[in-house]
Every structure is written in structure tokens, then in C-alpha cells.
Design brief:
Layout (H helix, E strand, L loop, with lengths): L10 H12 L6 E5 L6 H13 L12 H7 L6 E4 L18 H16 L15 H12 L8 E5 L7 H12 L5 E7 L7 H4 L3 E4 L5 H12 L3 H11 L3 H9 L2 H15 L4 H7 L1 H4 L4 H24 L10 H11 L4 H16 L4 H17 L3
Parallel strand pairs: 1-4, 1-5, 2-3, 3-4
Helix pairs in contact: 2-3, 5-6, 8-9, 9-10, 11-14, 14-15, 14-16, 16-17
Length: 373
């Protein structure tokens, strides 16, 4: 098995990078862009592993000391940079150490990333790639590497760079140190500063097909084929989401989404918040994102059922519930409900206070479903 095979699909991107490595024509900076869960970070790690492998080929051997270090994400030539709590004008952005809780969370998520390359990196309340970390890149890039091979920096969510961070990073890109490679990742290419974007070679990671996700779930997680197909269809091209739904009990999650929607329509707001306390009191974004995604799938299924019938419905095993929902709310603004959920997604990405996001969504859904406005 090729070391590139850890990356699901993305055949064009893998071939492009492998050819550049073989011909020794790598650019000094690449920007991998595409939807969440498509495999941008897995592709970056696979590329780093090939470049740091002692064998020096176009595919990593997987057994040399360098490959094993990359497998654990602990190779001294491989560095990771991502958004952290703090920001421009805050202490954590201009020199003070991170809280112990944040450091522990970083270690936990990096260990999880080493075990599962598709695991997301999402530090609570992280907003900005700090200028302090960009300055550290410049310092480390200028130093002699402790081991042979390129120094490789993988930057997650580069759209979160503020202006000072982007300007500092731009200076590095304009005069890149020798034997240094920057791999930038983003799900929001349009928000990456043009000055940074223009100095990178872009590589698109396309949305994964349902059959690619289902095949990977069967082969890697030994999931029953029928279940793998359902997870793939619910994942919306996001392999990380498919894994999370499998790990966290998909049936319970879908039941939670229906219960949340039913509670939105009630009159007792405080009772509703108490019943949904797992979400309203959550400090983590991922469970709430999962809830919102399943709500989005539910509304899309309702629209399909209303307009075209059963064909194309994802939650096919929930047809009876969907039919009752459409019978009662088919005249409501279901498209507006999807927009409301998508808006809640956007607020989560901006790190708006979770209970406020959910409460606002509740009010909007109730108004749209019961009053049509």
C-alpha cells in the first residue's frame, strides 16, 4: 500500500504532489483548499511523511525512524500551527504563555490526530493564528534542522490570520528559507488574504463522494456496508463527520435532532433548555455542529419529500416521521429553516456563545414553522 493511500480519494492532488516530488520541483508553499472533512490535513501529513522519509522516494517506506516519528506527529522537522485563544491586542497573542487547560487540549487533539489523520483540530474559543506563532516560524525556519530533510510547517485554517499575522507571514513567503516547505490549509479560500494566496501554489481537495466515504468506513473501521452507506450519505462529503457519527451513536444523535426540533415548537423555553442541557451547556463546538448538521439533513429531506417524493431522501428509515412532519408543516418556510440552521453554523465558526446560538435558532425555527415568517 502506498503511503498516499491514507488520503481518501483526492487522486489528482496526490498525483500532482507525487510528480512534483519525483521531479524535484516542489513549490515553497502550497495552499490545500476544499470542504471540511475532504482530507486536506491528511494530504499535508502524507506529503510531509514522503519528504521526511529516509528512503527518499515518491512514497514513504513507513518503517524508517523518520516515518515512525511522523506517524506520531513528533518529527522535529514537522511543525503545526493553528488558531488559538487570544488575538490581536490580547496577552496570549503578544508573548504570554497559553493556559494549562489549552495546552492539555492541544496535546489531546494532536494525539488524536496522530491516531486518526481525519480528526479535526478545533481548540475551544480559538479565533486567530497568533503573530507570536508566525514569529516562531521565522525563527525556526532560519535555524539548522536537527535532522536531515526539509523543515515543514503545516498551518491550519489560514483564513484566521489577522492582519499583523498575515503581514508577518507574507515576509517569510517572499523570502523563503532554503529547504523549507509551507503547507497551508483552509476550508474558506475566499477569506484567505490575497497577498498570501498569491504566493502559494493552490491544490484543490474536492468533496468526497459517498462511495469513497462508505468504502473507507468499511475497510478502515470494519463498519457494516449498509451502515457505512447511511453514514456516508449523512456526512455530506465529510469523512471526519462520518467517523464522529459512528463513534457517538448515530441513532441517538438523530433522535436528539428530532427531539430538539420538537422542543423548539413548545411554549416552555426554560423547560426546553433544561431538556437540551447537553447542548446548551456544552463547551465544545463539535456536538452542536453535529446536531445542526442533522437538523439540516432533516429539513432537506422534508423539502425533497414534499417536492419529489421518497426518492433522494437520506433518512429513509425515518420516512414515517418525515411524512408526519411534512403533513403538518409542509406549507411552512422549510427553505428558510435550512437558511436559519446554516446561519447558526456560521455563528459557531465565529465562536459566538453556544447557548445564544441555539436559543436564537430555536426562536427562528419556531417562527418559521408556526407562523411562516
Amino acid at each position: 500500500m502506498s503511503s498516499w493511500d491514507i488520503v481518501i480519494g483526492q487522486h489528482h492532488a496526490k498525483a500532482l504532489l507525487a510528480k512534483a516530488i519525483e521531479q524535484r520541483r516542489l513549490a515553497h508553499a502550497y495552499l490545500f483548499w476544499g470542504p471540511e472533512g475532504a482530507g486536506k490535513s491528511a494530504l499535508a501529513i502524507a506529503c510531509a511523511k514522503v519528504l521526511l522519509c529516509d528512503a527518499g522516494g515518491v512514497s514513504a517506506c513507513g518503517v524508517c525512524p523518520s516515518c515512525k516519528k511522523v506517524n506520531h506527529l513528533q518529527h522535529p522537522n514537522l511543525k503545526f500551527i493553528f488558531a488559538l485563544p487570544g488575538g490581536e491586542g490580547k496577552k496570549n497573542d503578544d508573548g504570554d504563555s497559553l493556559d494549562t487547560e489549552v495546552r492539555d487540549e492541544i496535546r489531546r487533539q494532536m494525539a488524536q490526530k496522530a491516531r486518526q489523520p481525519y480528526a479535526p483540530i478545533a481548540i475551544a474559543k480559538a479565533t486567530t493564528i497568533r503573530i507570536k506563532d508566525i514569529r516562531a516560524i521565522r525563527k525556526e525556519a532560519s535555524m539548522t534542522a536537527t535532522e536531515q530533510g526539509k523543515k515543514i510547517f503545516i498551518l491550519f485554517d489560514v483564513e484566521t490570520m489577522n492582519e499583523p499575522s498575515a503581514n508577518a507571514f507574507l515576509k517569510i513567503l517572499e523570502e523563503p528559507p532554503d529547504d523549507t516547505l509551507f503547507l497551508l490549509l483552509t476550508s474558506q479560500k475566499e477569506q484567505v488574504r490575497q497577498t498570501v494566496l498569491s504566493r502559494c501554489q493552490t491544490v484543490q481537495c474536492i468533496r468526497l463522494r459517498d462511495d469513497e466515504i462508505a468504502g473507507a468506513l468499511e475497510a478502515r473501521e470494519t463498519i457494516d456496508p449498509a451502515r457505512a452507506v447511511l453514514l456516508a450519505r449523512l456526512s455530506d462529503g465529510n469523512y471526519a463527520r462520518a467517523l464522529a457519527m459512528h463513534t457517538d451513536d448515530l441513532d441517538r444523535q438523530r433522535a436528539d435532532a428530532v427531539a430538539f426540533l420538537r422542543g423548539c415548537l413548545g411554549n416552555a423555553v426554560l423547560k426546553f433548555m433544561e431538556d437540551q442541557d447537553d447542548y446548551f451547556s456544552s463547551k465544545k463546538r463539535e456536538p452542536v455542529e453535529q446536531l445542526l448538521h442533522l437538523l439540516l439533513v432533516w429539513f432537506r429531506d422534508a423539502i425533497i419529500l414534499k417536492e419529489r417524493g421518497h426518492e433522494g431522501v437520506i433518512n429513509h428509515d425515518q420516512l414515517a416521521d418525515l411524512e408526519r412532519f411534512v403533513s403538518k408543516f409542509g406549507a411552512a418556510d422549510l427553505a428558510g429553516c435550512t437558511v436559519a440552521v446554516e446561519r447558526a453554523f456560521e455563528l459557531l465558526r465565529r465562536n459566538v456563545y453556544l447557548p445564544l446560538v441555539l436559543l436564537s435558532l430555536t426562536v427562528h425555527l419556531k417562527r418559521l414553522l408556526l407562523h411562516g415568517t
